[in-house]
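Wed. Picked up where I left off yesterday with Component of the SF3b subcomplex of the U2 snRNP. The coffee machine is broken again, so keeping this brief.
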Amino acid sequence: MPKIKTLSKRKQQRPDGWEEIEPTLTEFEQKMRDAENESTAGKRKVESTWSVMRVHHQRSRYIFDLYYKRKAISRKLYKYCIDNGYGDGNLIAKWKKQGFEKLCCLQCIQPRDTNYGTACICRVPKANLEEGRTVECVHCGCRGCASTD
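Structure written out below (tokens, as returned):
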């Protein structure tokens, strides 16, 4: 019986411009490894994933800024980065919508993850909160990602 060739075994050809963003993406990859291997001693249970979420957000934001804000990379390279897991396509899609420009993570807008079936506390504008109150998201540690802040 002949062997079946699958697409996942073949490497994709890297698009033009990859050499310019590769050092930054490898730096983010190293930061991610450090965040994953970070000790959780002395932290609350929810705090253990916050550093990973921050690096994930920074890496996705870097790709978003390159493509949509500065227009420094091609669509082909942008698609390559999203397809290969260098950026979160769903989070970037939310950043393009009005009101979600500063969104920290997708968990903050999912009502099923909160006690009262609403958005996360970090999505509430700081003007609507009590004076001097520090807000911290349980999911990612964000201190406020409402677009009006």
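Quick read: The chain has two domains: 16-96, 99-149.
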